[in-house]
Design a protein that fits this description.
This protein is mainly alpha-helical. It is built from 7 helices and no strands.
Length: 192
């Protein structure tokens, strides 16, 4: 696998994290270095970790993992999406206080759940890498760095929209997460 092919795979894998990062950017009034590092390291780290795990599991567990990975991703994304929609309907944009929820939005449990949900497809990519004997270290470094960059860019893009439209954006973000989950589910159940 050449570098261009690997980069295309890395960009494709980073798109879910990019979309979620946009939502994260909407939740803060001003981006701090800690916010950028949080989304970059969580999403980039998990996008690198999952292919490594998939690679190590290899073909032995490929059928077992691929049988349910899409359901896990869908469940996690739908749960978070429904929660975002619920929260968006409970508040008014006029009462917006971005800094009030910043701590919870970047909490370890939240970031862990989002990182797992957005990177579970990368597990299957890792299994594929094992089949094709791809050099795993350069692959996971490329995927991790690409996702790190796209996540921080998404955070900034989301932040540009500001807090004024936060509840509408949170509603939109929740719907997007559910749709991403459905996309993963449909791709793995209908088109596989």
């Amino acid at each position: 696998m050449n570098l261009l092919e690997l980069l295309i795979i890395a960009i494709g894998l980073s798109m879910d994290a990019f979309a979620v990062s946009i939502g994260k950017g909407l939740s803060v009034k001003k981006i701090k270095l800690s916010h950028a590092l949080s989304v970059g390291l969580w999403f980039g780290g998990f996008q690198a970790l999952m292919p490594l795990i998939g690679y190590l599991l290899g073909s032995t567990f490929a059928d077992i993992v691929s049988a349910f990975d899409h359901w896990v991703a869908f469940g996690l994304l739908a749960l978070i999406g429904v929660n975002m929609i619920k929260e968006s309907l409970e508040k008014d944009d006029d009462d917006c206080d971005c800094n009030k929820k910043t701590k919870n939005n970047f909490a370890i449990a939240t970031m862990f759940t989002l990182a797992v949900a957005t990177s579970i497809d990368a597990l299957a990519i890792g299994v594929t890498f094992a089949f094709f004997k791809v050099a795993i270290i350069p692959a996971i470094i490329t995927i991790g760095i690409t996702t790190f960059i796209f996540s921080i860019a998404g955070l900034k893009i989301g932040n540009i929209f500001g807090c004024k439209y936060k509840s509408h954006a949170e509603l939109f973000g929740g719907v997007i997460l559910i749709l991403i989950g459905l996309k993963i589910l449909i791709e793995h159940t209908i088109f596989s």
